[in-house]
Amino acid sequence: MKENFKIILDAFKEANIELTTVEFKLTRYSLNTDLSFKFENIDEFSEFLKISGASNSKERTEEIKKILVEEGIDYNDVFYVNFYPPKVAEL
Fold first, then answer.
1. What range defines the domain where residue 31 resides?
2. What is the longest distance spanned by two Cα atoms in the chain?
3. 90 in a domain, yes or no?
4. Number of domains in the chain
5. Does the residue 22 lie in any domain?
6. What is the pTM (predicted TM-score) of this model?
7. Of 7, 12, 79, 81, whose Cβ has the fewest other Cβ atoms within 10 Å?
């Protein structure tokens, strides 16, 4: 496993957040949170998702590519993934 993937997974463990339920925003920059991480390209992010057990489907990678394009971000270049806990609806 890549060292940076271990760092990310450890950050989730420390924050007591389950990676399979986490939400995220893709940006060109870091939001400077403990759960904001840089990825070199879509292939690296896809590899991280597979290793973490969060996703292993090509369809999911295509969805993420679409989001990056909509945000004006080149998926073959550096981008940040800013993770956050799932939102809970208030009653």
1. 3-84
2. 42
3. no
4. 1
5. yes
6. 0.85
7. 7
